[in-house]
Write a structure and sequence with these properties.
The model has no long low-confidence stretch (mean pLDDT 82). Helices cover 24% and strands 26% of the residues. The protein is built from four helices and seven strands, in the order H-E-H-E-H-E-E-E-E-E-H. It has a five-stranded antiparallel β-sheet. The chain has a two-stranded antiparallel ribbon with strand order 1-4. It starts with a helix and ends in an 11-residue tail after the last helix. It is an alpha+beta fold. It has one domain (2-125): Class I glutamine amidotransferase (GATase) domain (Rossmann fold).
Length: 136
């Protein structure tokens, strides 16, 4: 939500009121709620997770209403709500998810995202970097 909003997207402030046809995206009693998300075909997200549906934890009452420029929906809930986004520029590895990978104790689903981030970071680090000349 923060990435999308900060970079020019719009949010649903309270899903039950603004997206009433949607499925529950949190447990009103404060427990862990889960629902299915589907990776969008052809996205970086599908590369990371494959094409099959996933069950993710869901603890949010806000959602993405309009994507920020240069972002693509990468995973959708069955009600059509965007659950993950990726940046369109391949040189900038930026993935945002609505669920909390840190909350489940590093299950396979979450380590896949972490491993993809580490790999992208290592690939970026191995590219030649511009060096600035010192003035004067």
């Amino acid at each position: 939500q923060e990435i999308n909003f900060f970079l020019g997207g719009q949010l649903y402030i309270h899903l039950p009121e603004e997206y009433p046809r949607g499925l529950p995206h949190n447990d009103i009693n404060g427990g862990v709620h889960r629902h299915v998300v589907h990776p969008v075909k052809g996205t970086l997200f599908e590369e990371i997770y494959g094409p099959d549906e996933m069950h993710v934890n869901s603890m949010h009452h806000m959602g993405l209403k309009k994507l920020a420029p240069n972002f693509t929906a990468a995973a959708l809930a069955v009600d059509g709500l965007v659950e993950a986004i990726v940046h369109d520029q391949p040189d900038w590895w930026c993935v945002g998810v609505q669920w909390h990978p840190e909350a489940d104790g590093l299950i396979s689903l979450d380590t896949q995202l972490l491993e993809a981030f580490v790999e992208a970071s290592a690939n970026y680090r191995s590219k030649p970097q511009l060096k600035l000349a010192k003035a004067g």
